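Suppose you are handed a protein chain with no further information: no name, no annotation, nothing but its sequence. What can you learn? This example shows the usual starting point.
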Amino acid sequence: MAATIALLLGNTANAATEDQLKIVIDERGPWDLAAPELGQQAGIFKKHGIILDLTYSEAEKEAVVAGNADIGVGIDLMEVLRAYATKGAPVRIIGANMTGSVNYWYVATSSPIKTVKDIRGGTIAYSKSGGESSQYDVFDLIDQYRVKARPVLTGGEAATLHQVMSGKIDVGWARAPFGLDAVEHDQIRIVAKSKDVSKIRVKTSTVMIANADMVASRKEVLARFLQAYRETIDWMYADAAALKAYAEFAGVSEGIARRLREEFFKKEMLSTDNIVGLSGTLKDAVRLKYIVVPLSKKQLSELIQITAPAKASSWFRIFSP
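A reasonable first move is to predict its three-dimensional structure. Written in structure tokens, the prediction is:
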């Protein structure tokens, strides 16, 4: 009885030291957004005294700005710049989420197009459904390969696939893992990936955000959250159990999970510690009218606040050119 009471008291003490964080995640399923779910399942966040309350909804990201959620994951960087610079939103970037992109371009297997340069005046799809900045990936692709292609605005990924298969569009667009089952069944063929496009590869596209009050008042909790997040990413790339857990979470086969990890999502793309290519992103944001002028160094040091990994105890701000 004494041992049981001691155990219960110990569990109660542990529970009392755990901090709960309400996390809003842009979408359920993608590999780059799976760390909170997988890390919680694996007990990594709990090890750092963190319990996550997870909500998957693009619309719910406004809850972070309003202070009704603690952290937003997978938020478009240009959208954050616009909210901060033009709307005065009390938002802070606490980490990078995704650098680069896993968009790819494909054709029906019956198509004579084998590479990007074979397009030669054909039609190539682009969409606004993959994030506010991803629609511009197709123009970076065309610029790099100097392809004379006609961009055509399509609907979502499913609608685009239908148009490709019915011959209405020559080259389709998708974001992995969508369509990889069609690739495996030899229905479509990938002709280019965004990781092959230099302008896309060197820019952080999505970030993690928190309300300014949250950052000011709970720095130590945020530091533990980010450390657990980093450890989860390490585990996702080192343990076969992570592939099985992800496959069950995302509703895909372990083969698709492995292909995502090895072929599309290189580990460095998920690093939390640097906002990469920020000067280029600021220029693009001005050109595309997300913001009026580039943010000053003072504004950037206020907006971008990322805790150092555990080996460095200081709280610091990072922004990379």
